[in-house]
Amino acid sequence: MSSSLSQADVDRLLADSSVQTRVEVACKLGPSIDRSNLTDAALRSVQDIVRIMAQDVEEAVRAALSKSLRHSKRLPHDVALSLASDVESVALPILRHSLILTDEDLIELILSDCAVKQAAIAARPEVHEPVSAALVMRGDETVVTVLMKNAGAQVSEQSLIRAIDRFPHSDGVKESIARRDTLPLAVTERLIVMVSDRLRQYLVVHHRLSPAVATEVILQSRERATLDLSGGLHARDLEELVAQIHRSGRLTPTLVLRALCIGDMAFFEAAIAAMAAVPIENVRLLIHDTGRRGFAALYEKSGLPSDLFPIFRAATDVITNTKFDGEPHDVERFRVRVITRLLTQFEDFDHDDLEYLVTRLGDVLTVA
What we know:
Layout lengths: L6 H9 L3 H15 L6 H14 L5 H11 L7 H8 L3 H10 L5 H10 L2 H8 L6 H10 L2 H9 L7 H10 L4 H8 L6 H7 L5 H10 L4 H13 L11 H13 L5 H9 L3 H12 L3 H8 L5 H10 L6 H12 L9 H16 L5 H17 L1
Helix pairs in contact: 2-3, 2-4, 4-6, 6-8, 7-9, 8-10, 9-11, 10-12, 11-13, 14-15, 15-17, 16-18, 17-18, 18-19, 18-20, 19-20, 21-22, 22-23
């Protein structure tokens, strides 16, 4: 059976106007209207049939017509609007796919229609900024989530921030925004304080953050992870996270030093392993090598600044020789001891590093 409308189909429709026949004819109108060999007169005839069937009293006929014409480039604009304004079974294929509808049409439909239709518009292969702005303004949580998951949707910085503000407690909205291909810096830093540790790690690795914010996010996430200082729990996850941060160019000397200065030896070991391209087991042996030459060679291979080596050496010694006391808040007290010992051992600290350590010491004392 041919997929295009023929004269025989028209004759059959005139002779048998049953719903089934009308549905079968409607299914053939899409391929027929876009045939390149149609004359102008033939095209007008097909469009006339389309207009008539778009007013059919049977929903099944209109639904078949909508599905058939959803990709048509010759669908009359008035028919596209009529079908898009119809009941859901008729409207959704046109709303989801038809390029005949303009941005103005889509915005008007968004402002007047239900969430199901809004979601169909949000999932279109291409959504321009004015349309996405209307969806963020009027759509519910599900609609906005669909929009943010759509890689073909153009969403302005203002709309991204509005979506976050409208749905601050929606994990679906926040995660779908976080996982977009690109995000403005202001959006990333707005989102970073609102999401889980898992999403924070994703944002740090995949999106642009200022160095200061990236450093603090990583360290805060690590502090919440309740890892011990002899290698830590969830070691494989930690190594993969650090490797990703290194690949993204964000495993900076400042981050590594500050992690070490709060007593996070597990992060430090994983960082050196990633930067020096040395297996983690070997790194642990060399860092704690009593002969000290192994650590020096490993440090040089990592590419960390040579002038910071004495601080790293002192920090590892302090951590190795400092133990938990097993009492309440022993983690906080441990970090106080690490930082205060470093401060007393290195009076010639760089001003920025000294300021950080003093600030960090104050933070830990407040918590304790």
